[in-house]
């Protein structure tokens, strides 16, 4: 529970207690840092807890760390969601429990129910945060607030007549037998797969046609797990997919809703389902970053190029063409941030060698590509 309003001071404040925030917290704990805290608006892993009940991780969990290979969804050493839940593709609620278990085991200083309203750099260095707890001062900030709390709800005229997939608690509770889904990336295909599996007839309209993208990077194209599910439900004949077709408007009409592209109209008796993604949380502190390349510019230590001492962890991290939007990618940068902070606080960085040995200390980005010879 949140504390009464007081003025607090720390060496490091982590904003967000999802996979990135808890993972960075473990690194700071193992570095021996005492004066840090993790501020979370809701509860640990809250974004995962709000997934539709049927939604599962597209990255598989597997109990392989005994042979030197960390579970793809683990955020720290010697942990495995696969072992904890005996599942390969775990649910959002299960993953939130995993994160809470890690936080409890490492006795991380998580403060829940704390809303961070502003992050203001101080002229003498460090930051002042205005929060629902009051004013907090810190030398460093790690922004790990994630991507999935701010759904894109106004992407075209009439979008307010639609239901965003993040507003669905369970696909089994959705009324009707015929649906149109707008957006064909992972969340759209997950919605389609679940609805078709329940015997519904589904049309998917996507501006690009992600299902046909041959790219090997699952940050850009659909994952093998999703393609496998898609192939299965497509055989039912109850799934129709339209690519290269941006939706321009949705209008309520007699008997349902009309969905318009430039040259075509579709009718659906139920509100269309928006699978249009999310606005990143970095927009809350946008002036603290250089956005000239279309994303927040970061140094080699994932620190803002405009605001020294402000680090970013999680799916917002970009370096050139490299997109760190999966846990197995961005977890490799926790130790990079930890070392940068430890060096400035004169802490011993020897504990991070275990991260390097386990492939969790990615400080050479030249080795990253998805080329495959077969």
Helix and strand layout, with pairings?
Blueprint: E1 8-15, H1 19-30, E2 36-40, H2 46-49, H3 81-85, H4 92-105, E3 110-112, E4 116-121, E5 127-131, E6 134-143, E7 163-164, E8 178-182, H5 186-197, E9 201-205, H6 224-234, E10 239-242, E11 249-253, E12 256-260, E13 265-268, E14 273-274, E15 310-312, E16 318-319, E17 322-323, H7 327-330, H8 334-344, H9 353-357
Parallel strand pairs: 1-2, 1-6, 2-3, 6-15, 7-14, 8-9, 8-14, 9-10
Antiparallel strand pairs: 4-5, 5-6, 11-12, 12-13, 16-17
Walk me through this protein's architecture.
This protein is an alpha/beta fold and 374 residues long. The protein folds into two domains: 8-149 and 278-367, FAD/NAD(P)-binding domain, CATH 3.50.50.60; 159-274, 3-Layer(bba) Sandwich (FAD/NAD(P)-binding domain), CATH 3.50.50. It has nine helices and 17 strands. The chain has helices spanning 19-30, 46-49, 81-85, 92-105, 186-197, 224-234, 327-330, 334-344, 353-357; strands at 8-15, 36-40, 110-112, 116-121, 127-131, 134-143, 163-164, 178-182, 201-205, 239-242, 249-253, 256-260, 265-268, 273-274, 310-312, 318-319, 322-323. The strands form four sheets. Strands 1, 2, 3, 4, 5, 6 and 15 form a seven-stranded mixed beta sheet that branches. A five-stranded parallel beta sheet has the order 7-14-8-9-10, covered by helices on one side. A hairpin with a 4-residue loop joins strand 12 (256-260) and strand 13 (265-268). Helix 1 crosses helix 8 and helix 5 runs parallel beside helix 6 (224-234).
């Amino acid at each position: 529970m949140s504390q009464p309003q007081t003025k607090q001071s720390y060496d490091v404040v982590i904003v967000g207690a999802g996979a990135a925030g808890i993972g960075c917290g473990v690194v700071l704990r193992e570095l021996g840092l005492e004066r840090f805290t993790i501020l979370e608006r809701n509860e640990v892993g809250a974004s995962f807890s709000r997934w539709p009940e049927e939604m599962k991780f597209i990255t598989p969990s597997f109990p392989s760390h005994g042979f030197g290979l960390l579970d793809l969804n683990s955020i720290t050493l010697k942990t495995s969601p696969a072992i904890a839940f005996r599942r390969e593709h775990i649910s959002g609620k299960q993953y939130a429990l995993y994160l809470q278990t890690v936080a409890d085991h490492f006795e991380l200083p998580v403060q829940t129910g704390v809303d961070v309203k502003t992050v203001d750099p101080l002229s003498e260095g460090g930051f002042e945060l205005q929060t629902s707890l009051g004013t907090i001062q810190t030398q460093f900030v790690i922004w790990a607030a994630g991507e999935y709390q701010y759904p894109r709800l106004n992407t075209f005229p009439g979008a307010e007549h639609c239901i965003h997939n993040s507003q669905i608690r369970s696909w089994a509770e959705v009324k009707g037998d015929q649906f149109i889904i707008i957006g064909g990336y992972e969340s759209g295909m997950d919605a389609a797969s679940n609805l078709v599996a329940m015997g519904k007839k589904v049309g998917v309209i996507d501006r690009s046609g992600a299902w046909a993208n041959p790219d090997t990077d699952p940050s850009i194209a659909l994952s093998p797990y999703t393609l496998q599910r898609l192939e299965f439900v497509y055989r039912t004949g109850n799934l129709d997919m339209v690519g290269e077709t941006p939706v321009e408007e949705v209008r309520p009409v007699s008997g349902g809703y009309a969905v318009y592209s430039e040259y075509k109209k579709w009718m659906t008796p139920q509100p269309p389902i928006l699978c249009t993604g999310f606005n990143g949380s970095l927009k809350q502190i946008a002036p603290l970053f250089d956005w000239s390349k279309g994303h927040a510019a970061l140094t080699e230590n994932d620190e803002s190029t405009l605001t020294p001492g402000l680090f970013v962890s999680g799916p917002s991290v970009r370096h050139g063409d490299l997109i760190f939007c999966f846990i197995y990618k961005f977890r490799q940068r926790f130790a990079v941030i930890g070392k940068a902070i430890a060096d400035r606080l004169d802490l011993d960085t020897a504990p991070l060698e275990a991260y390097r040995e386990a492939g969790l200390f990615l400080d050479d980005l030249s080795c990253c590509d998805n080329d495959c010879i077969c």
